Fold:
Amino acid sequence: MKNIRLRCALCILSAMLIFTNRTRAQQRPLSSGDTLLLADPTIFSENGQYYLYGTGSARGFAPYQSTDLKSWHGPVGKGDGGHALLMGDSYGTKGFWAPQIFKNNGKYYMVYTADEHIAIAESDSPLGPFTQKEKKPISGAGKQIDPYIFKDTDGKLYLYHVRLQNGNRIFVARLKDDLSDIDTTTVKECISAQLPWENEAKAPWPVSEGPTVVKHDGLYYMLYSCNDYRNINYSVGYATATSPFGPWTKAAENPIISRQLTGINGTGHGDLFSDKSGQLWYVFHTHASNLRPGRRKTALVKIAFTKTKPAALVADKDSFHYLVFQ
Structure:
């Protein structure tokens, strides 16, 4: 009996040491030249500065900063450990995923996933601290993830997001003007994975996620990702609509960002933004290598609208590169 107890104790101690070593490895300070490891990334641009946020910390969101999209430093958040949103200041205890920064009426809002629900926190700075007076998620039944706020030209706000019901499906709802919650009477499904490229593994739980919406020449464009993020064919496509609520027509040239474009597996789930010159970029993640998903790497690729009517979206293969810490 003593030997059994001793073996059990040694097993527990060994597991604790492995966990500690893994945690230390994940928290290893970045060195110059290291690729940034943020999944589900987004970039917010203001006053000549670029702020990068994404999935990467168990305690919230710790952003990086750049002036040229090439050299990044940080984390630069005002909270402990460089966090802009820190667990305990807002809703959530685990699973801090897929943030977006949205500025409205002089205030900064972070919409994000935690505990497989969506919450919206606010701050006076893109570096935080982002907080909630009442720590709660937005309304809606079931699990909701991958939020994206879109402001239309008429000033109306919409929340695109993913609901976990018979697969990962993209929905939209009107967001209240004060960003306190959605109008649940307006919820409508937009996109589900139905095409062969969208469910390459023929999985019983098809995945469409990571929505980003932009308006161009009166037409709404939604970029989205399909296939499980661990799949080598995790890719980005887009659809168009004449209304924020759809119906959405998927582009014939999909996917526009994939391992065929980049040469790297697992390309997807990102955000669209403009640089100082007005050039559109898509920030996204890839697998750590073509051998394993690992901690996902953060990358950029240029995006452009063609001059056709209606315009198509195309990605520039030669512009693909990873974001590097300096």
